[in-house]
Amino acid sequence: MMLSADTDNTFAFAITLDDKVIGSIGVFRKDNIHSRTAEMGYYIGEPYWGNGYMTNAIKQVCEYVFEKTDIIRIFAEPFAHNTASCRALEKAGFQYEGTLKSNAVKCGNIVDMKMYALVRE
Q1: What CA–CA distance (Å, rounded) separates 112 from 101?
Q2: pLDDT (tens digit, 0 to 9) for every residue of the chain, 121 residues total?
Q3: Which of 12, 18, 28, 94 would disulfide-bridge 89, Cβ 3.0–4.6 Å?
Q4: How many CA atoms lie within 13 A of 24 on its CB side?
Q5: For position 64, which CATH number holds?
């Protein structure tokens, strides 16, 4: 599905280490009045947690998107309890904007999410 995605609206990358895929990251443009805003999502395999790989990937992808597109704001909504994900965003320069109460259902539990954003300078 990602390979056939619109390249003006979807920016998806594998995160690799020693030519092995260890995760993925993507930025997805919104539409209508939010067409210059994009949402970021990412995943990295548990054996690779805590080594700075995700922070590095976030920085590289944001730099790419800001250089290659007219997008002015990239946001991410990690689960509030996922402190490692929140920290990776903070280390990559994202600013915490607030908590989204009861924003998702994960494994049958209603959970909060945090809103982080990076705005083009």
Answers
A1: 5
A2: 444 555 678 999 999 999 999 999 999 999 999 999 999 999 999 999 999 999 999 999 999 999 999 999 999 999 999 999 999 999 999 999 999 999 999 999 999 999 999 999 8
A3: 94
A4: 7
A5: 3.40.630.30
Q: Match 């990776």 to its residue by tokens.
A: 88
In angstroms, the Cα distances linking 66 to 10, 86, 109 are 13, 21, 35
Question: How many structural domains compose the chain?
Answer: 1
Q: Which residue blocks in the chain are alpha helix, DSSP H?
A: 53-68, 83-91
Range(s) of the domain holding residue 8: 2-119
Nearest CA among 23, 22, 2 for reference residue 12: 2
In the block, tokens 């083009």 appear at 120
DSSP 79: B
In sequence order, what E strands does 19-108 have?
20-29, 37-44, 73-76, 95-106
